Amino acid sequence: LSLHDALPISVDRTGRLPTCLEEPRMELATQTVNDKPRDAYYWRLLATAASFTLFGVGGLCLRLLVFPLLSCLPGTAKQHQRRARHTISRLFWLFIRMMQRLGILTFSVDGADKLGRPGQMIVANHPSLIDVVFLIGLMRQTNCVVKQSLFQNPFTRGPVRDAGYISNDGSADMLDAAADALREGQTLIIFPEGTRTTPGAAPAFHRGAAAIALRGATIITPVVIKVSPTTLTKAEPWYRIPKRRFHFSLRVGADIEPQAFAALGPAPQASRKLNDYLHHYFIKELAEDEQPKQP
Known about the structure:
By secondary structure, this protein is of the alpha/beta class. Helix content is 45%, strand content 13%. It contains ten helices and seven strands. The longest helix is centred in the N-terminal third of the chain and has 31 residues, at 41-71.
């Protein structure tokens, strides 16, 4: 019987026994830990595909089944529109919670109680595909300026039309419709960039949002959105998911008085100054988010 057979301890490759001050080596355990999958990557990829498939099917169901049934209920056109917006808001929030439970994302919302006021224009940056889903999901009754292609998309054209959302076609009619909605006391969501932000680039704001605010908004409320790590951006397809769950942060800022800018001069000058103010505000807020936190 050899010494190696008699003692239930490991011998290293040199044949040397560990002393009482040394710990036995655990090469197999270390290798197992290092080979752990990247935060359930393939599960999250499958869950992301299932989520967006469900989103598209849900849009068709709203168009072909739910909204036709809702239209049979008594009420005016405005009441039908309110029902549609309420339904979309609840379904959008269920969609977000589903993505959270599936392990696709985590989220935090700071200041949601300040959203949804009459005549309020909500101005937000646009880093990801689901920004509008979050914002609409947080408010049961809100209007929104959405890109024109959604009105031709078979999965989304039913919901956006029944809810009375405004097409961002860049026309004077769009500006009038948005300003009228605010004057009627609706809450309006608008993304001044007009499209999703290119990763690594500063947001570029168009002046249309400022012009709408000066013509109809009672109050302007900025909302800073941050997604970490970046995903669902303008430059990335939905299936290029990050190595870990992404965190969606939504922070509601202090109100801005549009009347203070309207008093600065003629409408073109006032809208330019308001647009510059909003642009610098978001650049500053996003830059602060990128700064390393002090221990």
